[in-house]
Amino acid sequence: MGFYLAQLLTGLANASSLFLIACGLSIIFGVTRIVNFAHGSFYMLGAYLSYTLVTHLSALGALGFWGGVLVSALLVGVIGLLVEVLILRRIYRAPELFQLVATFGILLIIEDAALAIWGAQDLLGPRAPGLSKAVRILGEPIPQYDLALIVIGPVVLGLIWLIFHRTRWGVLVRAATQDREMVGALGVNQALLFSSAFFLGSVMAGLGGALQIPREAVNLNMDLSVIGDAFVVVVIGGMGSVTGAFIAAVLISVLNAFAVLVFPQISLVLPFIVMALVLVVRPYGLLGKPGSEKGAPADPEAPLRPLNPAGRLAMGAVVVILALVPLVSADFTMILLVDVLIAVLFAASLHFIMGTGGMISFGHAAYFGVGAYAAALVVKWLGLSMVPAMIVAPVASGLAALVFGWFCVRLSGVYLGMLTLAAAQIVWGVTFQWQDVTGGDDGIIGVWPAKWASSETAYFYLALVLCAGGVWLLRRAAHAPFGYMLRGIRDSEIRAEAIGVDTRFHQWMAFTFAGTLAGLAGVVSAFAKGSVFPDVLNISSSIDALIMVLLGGIHTLLGPLLGASVFVLIESWVTRLEYWRFIFGLIILGVVLIAPDGLAGALSRLLAFLKARIRPGTDTKKEALHGQRS
Amino acid sequence: MMKRRTLLTSMAALGAVGALPARLLAQGATIKIGDINSYTALPAFTEPYKKGWTLAMEDINAKGGVLGKQLEVISRDDTGDPSTAIRIAEELVSKDGVAMLFGTYLSNIGLAVSDFAKQKEVFFLASEPLTDAIIWSSGNKYTYRLRPATYTQSSMLAEQAAKLDVTKWATVAPNYAYGKDAVAAFKTALKKLKPEVEFVEEQWPPVFKIDAGATVRALEAAKPEAIYNVTFGADLAKFVREGSLRGLFDDRSVVSLLTGEPEYLDPLGDECPDGWIVTGYPGTDIKTPEHEAFAKAYIDRWGEDPKTGSVVGYNSLLAAATAMEKAGSTDTDAMLAAMDELHVKAPTGEFYFRAADHQSTMGAWVGKTALVDGKPKMIDWSYEDGADFLPSEEEAAKLRPAS
Amino acid sequence: MGNVLEVRSLSKSFGGIRAVRDVSFDLKRGEFLALIGPNGAGKTTCFNMLNGYLRPDTGSVKLLGRELVGIPPRKVWRMGVGRTFQITETFRSMTVLENVQMALISHNRRIFDLFSKATALYRDEALKLLELIGMAAQADRPCAELAYGDLKQLELAIALAHDPDLLLMDEPTAGMAPNERIALMQLTADIVARGHVSVIFTEHDMDVVFAHSHRILVLNRGELIAEGTGDEIRANALVQEVYLGGGSLFHEKETAHA
């Protein structure tokens, strides 16, 4: 009996930690609709700051500790506020999710800044004065600090509840969470509301991090290790619902505490399994309301136009120039270009569902990875050669997308995105664990191309044909009735249904189609690298593709092509430098601020501007709006 | 603040060394060597490593270099991603024209680069990856591994564990290949030495995401007499904290892999557990003349004590240079031929590369953890030669693929 | 020729509140039928049961003898029922013409075509439909730029694309300027006058209702309380009772709610 109680208390203590970080994320999303990747970084900063403060104030005893924790939380709040005012505020009108790119840049910057300031070594902070021991409850030792955390979680929940229900500010926050468009209509000072919500959310993240000091060593992995779980908690609870986040945190932590007794390996994917189950049953999370998944209202996209002759010429020229590269260039350039081609196809396939289809995916790497693994597995276990493997792979990824897509298209907005992420994480978990078949973490090696394609030049041409072909197919589909109707469903599901379209089925097929082509990118990658590892399936792989699409500009078909090329080329260049993440983060922020409509948008503005210079009298602004060639 | 300044200066210095000699020596003939490691993904382990090989490079070059030429290391960050590592390897080989590759920390990146080396017929000295697949199940002609195998270190610990008067064991290891290999090797070795042992509980927390409270509770519930721990880094700190608070380690023996390495031991500070049997590196406590000279040079150069990574980094480049001298050229086949039975006189003692499985016999230190003057240390340690714990060369050869 | 639509004993409750009670009526081919009633009378509920968005608790809806109850909206559409929305629903990222083309593409079951150029399909037919409603000049404008009245008209063109037997128009003139209302309803009346399509519409603007409808159904509290021509309805005491408690409201214009 005592044993199970102790296990429950352990779970509850973890739940409090998880809740603190998740509730900040939920508040920020609820009000501003920003998917804040930097939230984990704020959490980490809170831990580092409080390590420094608490260590310096250790002479003051309990006052020093709790004072240090609170001051760190507030400092993180101020940092969050600066981020909001200096960067995010400028891009609220950008297309949905674009702010996510900025927060990704901030995450990179904070990672390197923390490394420079606090060093690479893990830092073990002091324990909380007066709470550094364990007490016996029913004979089981329970750390006093765990008991403190169990109290702190609900207290914070109570305070937030009071703020939300007893203050005008809180009422506005709730209104904004439920109906994003209402806020503008209410005549509320939106900037102030957003800034204050971001401040509060960041304080909570900082507090969550600061309170971890007595439990774990502060380290540079804290940001990424927490952000996934925090999102899961927010989504299970319902985006924007603080109470929901609390229930979800308790659910996950307590389940985990007991699950490790029975099936220790489960921790790896448990949160994602719970999330998937909850979302299948409740599409808006436990306490989320319909509408909470929708992003900020965005300007409608301009109609798709076929490329004008000049554009078609330019595209053709790019392909021809690429085809001529091997004549003039060294092997390495081709290797880099193969990586660019793979990224372009991968991003274009994601764009098909995200841009054209309006379906957010945080887990597109699943299909890339299934393609890569399918190829590697048939090579390893069936001894097939490259060409059959290249046929099997897209079929396998298409099937995977068919299965997961069936569940995913039932949801929308960020919930849909998170369910795709759960699917990807589950695939990753299986691949990672199933050592006998997939090699687990050691992956599958020896997946090299057939003899005729093994030279850099030959493989480059093969990759060029497959990737350019895949991109062509995606573009063709986007201009065809299939893609048009997909866009139609994105614009208005009601209208699509009213002209006889089975919208779910159509989206499902689009998801499968995009998954198939992601698998094609995956197999090209597998043979280019000669090996496949679970890394191709993990979150950061999905996020990279997401950043490419958003950075390029989600509203044009050209966007993912530009975004992927620029992303891979910059990354390949910048990683040569010391503190490259800092520099890369700055570059991303620069691009975000200069081109809130993405690279493609900036390019078309530039072209329109140049055109106006050459042919005075053209209305540049109008050109930019309507001349968006795709 | 002090800490910050020294760190920044040393980082700046680090940046400078990478670049300066290259430019200064560009006119003269140099031998270029490519280094790939997870510098941003795992700085805690790779920074000392970089400092180690930098020191070796400077030492070697000061003594006239190799084959009359200066060594130039082109160092790149793999960002923790195997596919990026492959691209970098390709660039180092085909663009920079490096004579060989060395480095990598993560097992999967080590394996990816090793397979790349096989495909492109390049000599690759895997410095740090712990996975044993790299020498055995996925071993190849072009890849040699320096650091003692997971198998080796687990066997060293099993030998100590067999001496303990306990039979009920529990294990806790990160849930990925390294953790699984380490547990499997330990179990096999211990059962061989002491057939009556039983393993009553296994915990597999996700790497760097341990739920320490729940894990500790689950271990406690099984009431083992001893625990074999493979967690490291931030997981280890959490595990130690929760474990000591909840009395998990009271009256229990703990055997712990790598925990004696300063990278993992130092952060524990005054919470360093007492009397754990560990593998690791006792640093400046090693009083052999070779090691003292190395430690002094390292401290003079970087202003801090050497860590395990420093030794691995130093020995890697030293082994590469020794191989080139023996081969008399930087031709791949000549270097590969030289690697077999190549003896390297390292600051940590002499070791050699086995011809059968390309594993070095570099050993590890086995001892106990203790707090000495408020600082975590390894005590009662002894150096165990890797050669004594590896399977015989005939056995090892059978573990490798036929080709 | 018999009835296009036969509605029998349609009922629907929401959590104990009976929104529609036992509504029955017929519709002839080429008939222009108005469904009116005060707010909350059950017009929209009734409408949504006709086009498949809501499933009635009891009753039947037969289109040319085929049962519509239990069939999802998209299939109801395929069986020959077009509709327009109270608040317009169009594809905002497409041009006016493309919006009509999409309906035609769907009607011809080509939405899974991966290769043809969507903008080149059924262009002439789509243009003809736009000409019919007088929007040909705006064919290539992005839908997002259109005035609200134009969107309403566009919806009419979309709804006619598959040559339906029945057209359901939910408050077709809501949110439009008075002169636009007259134009739109005149246009609809002209289309009805060709004799193929039958129309049911709900409406607040009584001028519109009396000016164009052939027959009027009056709903109150979910029940059909009157049925007849404009004159009959005007004269109906019960209807007058319901609207403004016996006053003669029918000369007063209700302002359309936006």
Automatic annotation (TrEMBL), chain A:
Example of a GO MF term: branched-chain amino acid transmembrane transporter activity
GO (cellular component) term, any one: plasma membrane
Residues that span the membrane, as ranges: 12-35, 42-59, 65-88, 100-120, 147-164, 230-252, 258-281, 310-328, 334-353, 389-407, 414-434, 458-475, 508-527, 547-570, 582-603
Source organism phylogeny: Bacteria, Pseudomonadati, Pseudomonadota, Alphaproteobacteria, Rhodobacterales
Keywords: Amino-acid transport, Cell membrane, Membrane, Transmembrane, Transmembrane helix, Transport
InterPro entries attached to this UniProt entry: ABC_transp_permease (IPR001851), BCAA_transport_permease (IPR052157), LivM-like (IPR043428)
Family, as annotated: Belongs to the binding-protein-dependent transport system permease family. LivHM subfamily.
Record localization: Cell membrane
Biological process terms in GO annotation: amino acid transport
Full protein name: ABC transporter permease
Annotated organism of origin: Pseudooceanicola albus
Membrane topology (UniProt): Multi-pass membrane protein
Predominant cellular place of this UniProt entry's protein: membrane
Automatic annotation (TrEMBL), chain B:
Matches recorded under InterPro entries: BCAA_transport, Leu-bd, Leu_Ile_Val-bd, Peripla_BP_I
Gene3D superfamilies: 3.40.50.2300
Superkingdom, taxonomy of origin: Bacteria
Domain Leucine-binding protein: 30-368
Protein keywords: Amino-acid transport, Signal, Transport
Residues forming coiled coils: none
Protein's GO biological process: amino acid transport
Family membership: Belongs to the leucine-binding protein family.
Signal peptide (UniProt feature, chain positions): 1-21
Protein name (Swiss-Prot/TrEMBL): ABC transporter substrate-binding protein
TrEMBL record, chain C:
Domain annotation ABC transporter: ranges: 5-246
Gene Ontology CC terms, in alphabetical order: plasma membrane
UniProt GO BP: D-alanine transmembrane transport; L-alanine transport; L-isoleucine import across plasma membrane; L-valine import across plasma membrane
Pfam families: ABC_tran, BCA_ABC_TP_C
GO molecular function: ATP binding; ATP hydrolysis activity; L-isoleucine transmembrane transporter activity; L-phenylalanine transmembrane transporter activity; L-valine transmembrane transporter activity
SMART domains, sorted: AAA (SM00382)
Protein origin, superkingdom: Bacteria
InterPro entries: AAA+_ATPase, ABC_AA/LPS_Transport, ABC_transporter-like_ATP-bd, BCA_ABC_TP_C, P-loop_NTPase
Keywords attached to this entry: ATP-binding, Nucleotide-binding, Transport
Official protein name in the record: ATP-binding cassette domain-containing protein
Higher taxonomy: Bacteria, Pseudomonadati, Pseudomonadota, Alphaproteobacteria, Rhodobacterales
